[in-house]
Amino acid sequence: MRTLTIREPRSITIETSVPPQPASSDLLIRVAACGICGTDLHIYEGSYLGSYPVVPGHEFAGTVEAIGADVTRFAAGDRVAVEPNLPCNNCTACLGNRQNFCENWQAVGVTRAGAMAEYVVVPESAAFGIGNLTFDEAAFVEPLSCVIHGIRKLSVRPGSRAAVVGAGPVGMLLVRTLRACGVTRMTVAERNRARRDFARQSLGVPVLSDASELEQDAYDIVVDATGVPAAMAHTLEAASPGAEVLWFGVPDTDAEIGFRPFAVFRKGLSVHGSFTSVRNSMEAIELLSSGAVPVADLVTHRIGLDEVEGMLGVLAAGSADVRKVLVLP
Ligand SMILES: [Zn+2]
Ligand SMILES: [Zn+2]
User: Fold this and answer.
1) What's the CA-to-centroid distance between 111 and ligand 2, angstroms?
2) How open is the CA angle 223-218-152, to the nearest 5 degrees?
3) What confidence tens digit (pLDDT) does each residue in 261-317 have?
4) Closest CA to 135 of 110, 115, 113
5) 129, 153 in Cβ contact below 8 A?
6) Relative to the alpha carbon of 42, which ligand is closest?
7) I want to staple 150 with a disulfide (CB 3.0 to 4.6 A). Which of 8, 195, 201, 274 is the partner?
8) 154-273 has the same fold as 2-145+277-327
9) Who's near 234: CB < 8 A, 6+ residues apart?
10) What percentage of the chain carries pLDDT values higher than 70?
11) How far is the CA of 101 from the centre of ligand 2 (A)?
């Protein structure tokens, strides 16, 4: 099998080896589609906590090729998506049902071999059947799970008015999921022209060119999907009295933010952060397979393993025309 490995920051090799054998409670999966996300870019650039070498790829779907002796839910040929975060289920965080903060956290494509390879081994407990979803769609189960985890922190009600800052792939998932939850009036802000045009045409909502243009005190729900401190500060100003703000985008680890704490006090705002997900894959599969959250139009590139390094360079440069890139190993 061919495997893409990040040997050290900015150093990628592609090697050929024999596919691994699944252990007794594992599945061997033939990878059909694997999304590239910001985390992969951080691993490539060396700005992510983790050790090298690593095979990246944590947003993926494929076909079960072989099963371990103790596997009960799957058989060879089954089509699955995978929840890459692997909690130990035996630490204080896990026992408190906060598996996303597991003290012994492992993740497929981060701390153990991921899906930028023809085959990957995962525990049975991390795999979910995907029904009639295409593999392209099923590659969104992981990012959509994170979006669901974030939105579940909010009390979205029928008729809620929302603003989302950032219309990249995750911003688009947030908008569509909020709509599925009952948001009726939606405003989007996006600085990138191509993404703005796409959001306007595919969502049919007003799309502003900067978070600073959002109406003040106007939205019940305001979500940042950029991680940019200036944009995050604007979310507090756009929030209506009693509103909820979700800071979903990933800021730089040492970024700081200037904002008016008086606005948080006077408007009684609730500000939420959200880190990964906790068992939201079944909800994600339901949103995708019901059509409530369409994703096919978010895929702009489908590439092979040999093209990944070049594409990471394009993504690092912030190319306008790239939305979701899927790797087909
Ligand atoms: Zn990701
Ligand atoms: Zn744990």
Assistant:
1) 15
2) 35
3) 999 999 999 999 999 999 999 999 999 999 999 999 999 999 999 999 999 999 888
4) 115
5) no
6) 1
7) 274
8) no
9) 165, 211, 212, 214
10) 99
11) 7
Q: What is the pLDDT of residues 143-158, one digit of tens each?
A: 999 999 999 999 999 9
CA 64 – CA 135 distance, rounded (Å): 13
Which fold would CATH assign to domain 2-145+277-327? Quinone Oxidoreductase; Chain A, domain 1 (3.90.180)
Q: What separation in Å is there between the alpha carbon of 93 and the centre of ligand 2?
A: 6
Query: How many Cβ atoms are within 10 Å of 9's Cβ, its own excluded?
Result: 13
Helix (H, G, I), strand (E, B) or coil at 83: coil
pLDDT single digits (tens) 67-118: 999 999 999 999 999 999 999 999 999 999 999 999 999 999 999 999 999 9
**CA torsion through residues 327, 319, 249, 193, sign:** negative
Task: Please tell me the number of the ligand nearest to residue 93's CA.
Answer: 2
Residue 247 makes CB contacts below 8 A (sequence gap 6+) with 224, 227, 232, 235, 271, 272, 273, 274
Q: Which two tokens stand for residue 271?
A: 């500000």
Residue ranges per domain, the chain? 2-145+277-327, 154-273
| pLDDT value, residue 85 | 96
- pTM, entire model: 0.96
What is the bridge-based pairing of β-strands 207-208 and 127-129? Answer: unpaired
